[in-house]
Write a structure and sequence with these properties.
about 375 residues, seven-stranded mixed β-sheet, about 40% helix, alpha/beta
């Protein structure tokens, strides 16, 4: 019978030690738990969870003999932090007690920052693939790693897109009150200032609202030729729907997660994603085919990020030949991994050294890539040009 490799949130903490101990008694494998934290009821989070699960299943089908014992067998242990910073701390302590080799998450910047001290004290690698707030890697933690670019990276490429590709002269910004949006907005304003592009309107909204009427009206009235929405993924579709209803003709620029949604617009909506065009590279097409066969649905961008993040932990554990978190984290600092969105290696703060981005434009045929934005050092040759 196939060994179970997925443990859901309903697994009671009091039952884990006995089950885990029983699994450890199997002399043929060593169990390596990988934590996954986020708001598990969200469909995008579920797609990421599936991406991580696919990486684990594929790794377990290709076991590698250990030098110090039997092969490592990987299992996913998921917990729902409900995007709540207070709950994230409890989840982090549960993962530490459960002796995970590392954690994928947390989903949002606020909970990720709240959980980071717990992981750092225990030597547990926290591999972020969605929490892009630059604050996370500025606190000096040795066990924080980020697969995608930070808000500083995103802001730089947003400004480059606005300036060099879209030739914008007057920019309006609508931002939410989340930690992610606060960091991205501040960095974007700095980047625009360096390029002498004025911000003619700055409007704030709640991170939970779907009402953008007043903010969009103010942005249009300001005479802006580009509107940036700096908000969480769940707010992107309502924002575009509101703009369409109001007949807004100003170009709109969105951030990560937008290309997972089909937008009915006249081609005035753009988005920047921390990834590469999936149709350009054969290994990316292969991932999509395997994911579709396994889960009977197409992957999202988050599926790909989580797949890469899980494989990083798997590769680090195998190279360290260990299921002990501090040893895996130490290996991760030196690792270079060829991911779906380019080579991944980490700087001294745990940031991706050379994150790649793509600017997309919405069309009736779906999102069309316009340009890859990167230093090219970490971009596969098939995605260049």
């Amino acid at each position: 019978m196939r060994r179970r490799i997925y443990r859901g949130i309903l697994l009671a903490a009091c039952l884990l030690p006995s089950w885990h101990a029983a699994a450890q008694d199997d002399a043929r494998t060593r169990i390596a738990l990988i934590g996954f934290a986020g708001p598990l009821s969200d469909q995008m989070v579920q797609s990421a969870q599936q991406g991580a699960l696919l990486a684990i299943e594929e790794a377990n089908r290709r076991p590698q003999p250990g030098k110090q014992g039997p092969p490592l067998h990987f299992e996913l242990l998921s917990q729902d932090d409900k995007s709540n910073s207070n709950l994230a701390g409890y989840v982090a302590r549960y993962f530490v007690t459960s002796r995970v080799i590392g954690v994928l998450g947390h989903w949002n910047t606020g909970p990720a920052i709240a959980a980071a001290p717990v992981y750092d004290a225990a030597g547990v690698a926290q591999v972020s693939f969605t929490a892009t707030g630059s604050q996370l890697t500025r606190k000096g933690y040795r066990n924080v790693f980020r697969v995608v670019g930070s808000t500083d990276d995103t802001a730089a490429y947003l400004a480059e897109s606005a300036d060099k590709i879209m030739d914008s002269k007057r920019v309006a910004i609508i931002h939410s009150d989340t930690a992610f949006s606060t960091a991205l907005t501040a960095a974007f304003v700095r980047e625009l200032s360096a390029r002498a592009i004025p911000v003619v309107s700055m409007q704030a909204v709640s991170g939970k609202t779907s009402d953008f009427n007043a903010q969009l009206r103010a942005a249009v009235d300001s005479g802006a030729d580009l509107i940036l929405l700096s908000a969480i993924t769940g707010q992107l579709q309502p924002f575009v729907n509101t703009a369409k209803r109001m007949n807004v003709s100003t170009r709109i620029l969105l951030t990560g997660g937008a290309t997972n949604q089909k937008l009915d617009d006249a081609g005035q909506v753009y988005a920047i994603e921390p990834n590469l065009p999936q149709q350009r590279c054969s290994h990316q097409k292969g991932f999509e085919q395997r994911y579709l066969a396994r889960f009977e649905r197409a992957p999202t961008t988050f599926s790909r990020y989580a797949f890469d993040a899980a494989n990083l932990l798997i590769q680090a554990a195998r190279q360290a030949d260990s299921e002990r978190a501090p040893e895996v984290s130490a290996e991760l600092r030196e690792l270079r991994y060829a991911g779906l969105s380019g080579d991944i290696a980490f700087d001294k703060d745990g940031n991706n050294s050379h994150p790649a981005y793509t600017l997309y434009r919405s069309s009736p045929q779906g999102w069309q890539p316009l340009r890859v934005l990167s230093s090219e050092q970490g971009v596969p040759r098939c995605a260049r040009g």
